[in-house]
Specification:
Blueprint (H helix, E strand, L loop, with lengths): L11 H7 L11 E2 L2 E2 L6 H25 L3 H5 L3 H11 L7 E2 L2 E2 L9 H10 L5 H28 L1 H12 L13 H16 L3 H12 L6 H18 L6 H5 L2 H14 L4 H10 L2 E2 L3 H11 L6 H22 L4 H15 L1 E2 L5 H6 L2 H9 L2 H25 L5
Antiparallel strand pairs: 1-2, 3-4, 5-6
Length: 397
């Protein structure tokens, strides 16, 4: 149905919904529901805290039978590599096995271990510091996602999105030594800054995010779109600062690795050689075909990736139907696309979480009983994936 002509009397949130290409909003520092500093999603943050406490308590109890340490169980997978960086830094020479680069810390971005190293200067062990940083940035991510939803549709939508994100299945990563909290926090706040035309802030947040994970490069696309539109429509040349600054975290890390190892493509070579990870447009189609051809035969990983791919498609449909502003929609689609074609990563719950505009779409669209059911189902799935990753370790997150 065609949208009605925009008028100056229409509320900001309504204008953003009826015209998704419009990024102009309220004065900087405000949101659809009022000043941002007066808004806190208390229930969502308490639920988030409860999830972390229950996870740690459950692992501590399980340790009585496994005889593992708590830090060992919560510092697995990527956390092991991050802690190696904290203790030993990056290798000066890429290790090779049979002519291929072997798995080594070069594949992991530097911001998270750098923050952990700073926090550990307080006397905490690196493992404890890593878990605290992950948990704290997870809480800030809950707030930031809620703030973005509030920016689009007001207070109630912000509360709903924040609560749903707090129990989203992929948020088990916040109980581990992972960098996802930094990425989600910076990108969500960066999208709010773009909608408010705060170009310098958006670019700075993008630079921080791209120093934490390559997934954040999807935010650069949003910055470029907004800057191009601002230049063409309003001759706001200062908008170009956003796409110029946003990728600098990634660029700086690639430059450091080049100087440190002597290989311009050190990161790519490590990803491909150490983890057999590379872009493949055919990868999501192979996952879908393998499952549809014989739903019983795929491994547990294959089943997770199949349902993750289906969830991503549904998420894109919801984002479009909610008429999310183009920079928000672009980030969500690009983040999903990058994960979908990244073999063998695929669309696991953790990467669906990084494409958080899906959660924003659910929070702005559904309320009442439907929202409560979404929260309940997400909480059950969160428990399931947490057990799967920490107890069985059958698949990597």
């Amino acid at each position: 149905m065609a949208s009605e002509p925009l008028t100056s009397e229409q509320p900001v949130a309504e204008r953003l919904v009826t015209e998704p290409t419009e990024v102009a909003g309220p004065e900087p520092g405000t949101a659809a529901g009022g000043p941002a500093v007066r808004w806190v999603p208390t229930t969502a943050l308490l639920v988030y805290l409860a999830c972390r406490v229950v996870t740690v308590a459950a692992v501590a109890v399980a340790n009585r039978w496994t005889h593992n340490s708590l830090l060992y169980d919560l510092g697995i997978w990527d956390g092991e590599w991050f802690l190696r960086i904290v203790h030993h830094g990056y290798p000066a020479h890429l290790p090779t096995v049979a002519g291929h680069v072997a798995a080594n810390p070069t594949a992991f971005f530097p911001l998270f271990p750098l923050i952990v190293r700073v926090v550990s200067l307080t006397g905490l062990s690196a493992g404890v510091a890593a878990l605290l940083v992950s948990a704290a940035t997870g809480a800030s991510a809950v707030y930031a996602v809620g703030l973005l939803a509030r920016r689009l549709r007001g207070d109630d939508a912000g509360y709903r999105a924040a609560l749903l994100f707090a129990v989203f299945p992929g948020t088990f990563a916040f109980s581990l030594a992972y960098s996802e909290g930094i990425v989600v926090t910076c990108v969500a706040l960066g999208l709010v800054a773009l909608l408010d035309r705060r170009w310098l802030l958006a670019g700075a947040l993008g630079a921080v995010a791209t120093a934490a994970s390559p997934v954040a490069l999807a935010f650069v696309v949003s910055c470029a779109w907004c800057a191009g539109r601002a230049v063409v429509r309003d001759r706001q040349w200062r908008a170009l600062v956003a796409p110029v600054l946003a990728p600098l975290g990634f660029v700086a890390f690639m430059g450091y690795l080049w100087a440190h190892t002597g290989h311009l493509e050190a990161w790519r070579l490590t990803e491909r050689g150490g983890w057999r990870s590379y872009p493949s447009v055919a990868y999501p189609f192979r996952i879908l075909w393998a499952f549809l051809h014989d739903p019983v035969s795929p491994t547990e990983t294959g089943q997770i990736l199949f349902f993750g791919t289906v969830a991503a498609v549904v998420g894109v449909v919801l984002m479009v139907r909610e008429r999310q502003p183009v920079p928000v929609l672009l980030y969500g689609v690009c983040a999903l696309g990058a994960a979908a074609v990244s073999q063998p990563v695929g669309l696991r719950p953790r990467f669906l979480m990084l494409a958080f505009p899906i959660v924003v779409a659910l929070g702005t669209r559904y309320e009442g009983r439907v929202h409560r059911w979404l929260v309940a189902v997400s909480a059950v799935l969160l428990v399931g994936f947490t057990v799967l990753e920490l107890a069985s370790r059958a698949v990597f997150p």
